[in-house]
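Support request from a user on the community tier.

User writes: "When I paste my structure tokens into the form, the page sometimes reloads and wipes my input. The last time it worked, I copied everything first. Here is what I submitted, just in case something in the input itself triggers the reload:"
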């Protein structure tokens, strides 16, 4: 994926495993409008790739997600 996102990091290995990580550690990965929009773009982009077999959503930092950032 050539795109760079501000709230999500993506890695696709040679086995076709895509790892998606929320990247807002400073707020315990709380979801905001930007992250939701970027995750949507990420998943849509990964869905179109023939080399991706599975997508793993995992945490980055000390929390998986603190909920919504209202």
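"...and here is what came back when it finally went through:"
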């Amino acid at each position: 994926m050539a795109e760079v996102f501000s709230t999500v990091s993506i890695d696709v290995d040679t086995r076709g495993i895509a790892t998606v990580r929320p990247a807002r550690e400073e707020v315990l990965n709380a979801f905001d409008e930007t992250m939701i929009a970027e995750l949507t773009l990420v998943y849509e982009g990964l869905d179109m790739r023939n080399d991706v077999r599975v997508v793993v959503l995992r945490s980055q930092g000390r929390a998986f997600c603190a909920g919504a950032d209202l």
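Agent notes: The reload is a front-end session timeout and is unrelated to the input. The chain has one domain: 8-57. The longest strand covers residues 17-22. Escalated to web team.
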